């Protein structure tokens, strides 16, 4: 299953950023900025962006930690990381971001390393949510936060119907124009499998986080799970 997921993101890498902009009417930038703010990353911090993809959240973290900080972006899609590296070169980077091709279910870092972490549209795509949250907990310093942004199914039936309509009539047809229908058709069933905000909180507390809060955004079509390690 993880090979299938890796292949999806390898294949969509060349158009991923552009489609996100078009399909979210640019709103994803706001949702990502909110996520980085909720991570409480600050100047001088050492930060981790899990499932970094083409680097959107890692770049935002870099701007917050400044030249005295450090940022690591981890993803198992080599094609996504290539895009992140290309983007790195085309913009003045303070600090330089370290891009690592690895599985977030088995992070190549020692315990208690990071002052803050982000994960944007990654938790829904990993094959073992509990294990992923355990790894996040392991590598965070005591008192550190992680902010985890993802889609989910809204509670409100009208919002759910709109979300599904949007996916069926805008997202997948636009992806189909680019020969990526199957890759984007994957989103809907991934939403069906993904736990609600309340269940995400329960899982986070069960793996050992001292606090876990889920903030619905975008009319409850997205959400940010903020967890703290004590
Ligand atoms: C940045 C966004 C999605 C990232 C993303 C996550 C995935 O799991 C994927 C899986 C397979 C292919 C692609 C992705 C993927 O791009 C969010 C913006 C892009 C969304 C595809 C747009 C969908 C937005 C909401 C359903 C509706 C928003 C309506 C509002 C009026 C903008
Ligand atoms: C929807 S993209 C999100 C990319 C980026 N965070 C963003 O916000 O645009 C999901 C990313 O998670 C990565 N991913 C999924 N499962 C992973 C795993 N087990 N280990 C590492 N990366 C993984 C995929 O390769 C993909 O780049």
Automatic annotation (TrEMBL):
It catalyses: demethylphylloquinol + S-adenosyl-L-methionine = phylloquinol + S-adenosyl-L-homocysteine + H(+). One of its GO terms (biological process) is methylation. It comes from the Bacteria. Its EC number is 2.1.1.329. Pathway: Cofactor biosynthesis; phylloquinone biosynthesis. Gene3D superfamilies: Vaccinia Virus protein VP39. The keyword Acetylation does not apply. CDD domains: AdoMet_MTases. The keyword Ion transport does not apply. Keywords: Methyltransferase, S-adenosyl-L-methionine, Transferase. Belongs to the class I-like SAM-binding methyltransferase superfamily. MenG/UbiE family. PANTHER family: 2-METHOXY-6-POLYPRENYL-1,4-BENZOQUINOL METHYLASE, MITOCHONDRIAL, METHYLTRANSFERASE. This is 2-phytyl-1,4-naphtoquinone methyltransferase.
């Amino acid at each position: 299953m993880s090979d299938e997921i890796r292949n999806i993101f390898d294949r969509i890498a060349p158009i991923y950023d552009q489609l996100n902009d078009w399909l979210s009417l640019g709103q994803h930038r706001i949702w990502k900025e909110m996520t980085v703010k909720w991570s409480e990353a600050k100047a001088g911090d050492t930060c981790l962006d899990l499932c970094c993809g083409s680097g959107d959240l890692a770049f935002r973290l870099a701007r917050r930690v400044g030249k005295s900080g450090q940022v690591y972006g981890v993803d198992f899609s080599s094609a996504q990381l290539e895009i992140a590296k290309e983007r790195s070169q085309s913009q003045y980077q303070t600090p330089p971001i370290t891009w690592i091709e690895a599985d977030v279910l088995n992070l190549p870092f020692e315990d208690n390393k990071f002052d803050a972490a982000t994960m944007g549209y990654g938790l829904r795509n990993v094959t073992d949510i509990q294990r992923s949250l355990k790894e996040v907990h392991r590598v965070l310093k005591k008192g550190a936060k992680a902010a985890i942004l993802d889609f989910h199914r809204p509670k409100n039936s009208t919002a759910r119907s709109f979300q599904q309509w949007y996916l069926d009539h805008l997202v997948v047809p636009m992806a189909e124009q680019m020969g990526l229908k199957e890759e984007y058709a994957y989103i809907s069933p991934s939403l069906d499998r993904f736990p609600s905000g309340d269940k995400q909180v329960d899982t986070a507390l069960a793996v050992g986080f001292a606090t876990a809060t889920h903030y619905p955004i975008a009319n409850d079509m997205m959400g940010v799970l903020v967890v703290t390690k004590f």
